[in-house]
Design a protein that fits this description.
197 residues, alpha+beta, Nucleoside Triphosphate Pyrophosphohydrolase, three-stranded antiparallel β-sheet
Length: 197
Amino acid sequence: MNDELLQALRPLSAPPGTPGWNHADISELLGDTPRRPAAVLLGLREGVQPRLVFTVRTDHLQSHAGQVAFPGGGTDPGDADALATALRESEEEIGLARELVTPLGYLDNFETISGYRITPVVARIAADARLRAAPAEVAEVFEVPLAFFLEPANLRRYVMEYRGHRRDMVEFVHGGHRIWGATAAILLNLLKRMGRA
């Protein structure tokens, strides 16, 4: 795995604390209401070209329908920590067996306009892991080479109006998939921690 990537991560022994790195921006919209804990898995499938695993959410979900996302979701009372949430959700959403996952570290917490505080867990996924979309939540599973995100020309910046606020946004477009919103912001955090953005 890329040494540059590994050095950019928070160690497993030191998960990120609150608030999220974008807390000031979100507080303008949501105030200081408590954020609900959640976690996502930035799974890098091993191979000559490490590839990040993404999902496309089904069109009938209540929130973020049809959007590209990392496997993950809200923390359950039985989850010991963010890592447990990310592994459980990945198993439920894409059939990823825990024994094929090697956790590597964390990125910084990110707060969403839907009121979540997401802890991104970065992990290695075995090359032979078989992934299958859980049709109730996931329409498609796809992979993008990590190298694509490290190419500066592939990071697109734009400004969005939301509830009277101008918000700086980023997105990536790969193979017909638009990666934006919280997913793109988490990738931006990875790039910044790697000194690439």
